[in-house]
Design brief:
By secondary structure, the protein is of the alpha+beta class. Helices cover about 15% and strands about 40% of the residues. It folds into 2 domains: about 70 residues, Roll (SH3 type barrels), CATH 2.30.30; about 55 residues, SH3 type barrels (Roll), CATH 2.30.30. The chain is built from 2 helices and 14 strands.
Amino acid sequence: MPNTARRILLVLAATTIAALDAGESARAATGLPVPRFAALRAGEVNMRTGPGVRYPVEWVFTRRNLPVEITAEFKAWRKVRDWQGTEGWVHASMLTGKRSIIVTGRTQVLRRSDSSSAPEVANVEKDVIGRLLNCRGAWCRIEIAGLRGWLQRARFWGVYAKETIK
């Protein structure tokens, strides 16, 4: 291969990698906003170091419905970040748009309404996963193990600070 052709290929490869890192290709695959939240569809999901099966598996998620943040897209692959900051690539078929949350910090109180003085529904342990139903203001309505109630959005991970969920 002539040097000129080799240089062009190297420039194209570098441009593709730079676009991935900058998130420029993020809207190309689906047109959905990036970043956004999703959840793991299966109880075992491989997270790879790059967008394809030729990249090694770096981590295996083992919790179905675990919320993840999609930070980039490349073809059928999504770069995700979990609540602890771990990042890698998963196949889009392993994700669902159904929203979930994970309780952070210490044990939290699930309330009957969106007020800190509302009656308690349950105490929810750290790392428990729940389904996100809707949010308004500083509170979100969630479902955990069949129980529905309100939890302050600062007490869990899986929703943006000013995001409205209906």
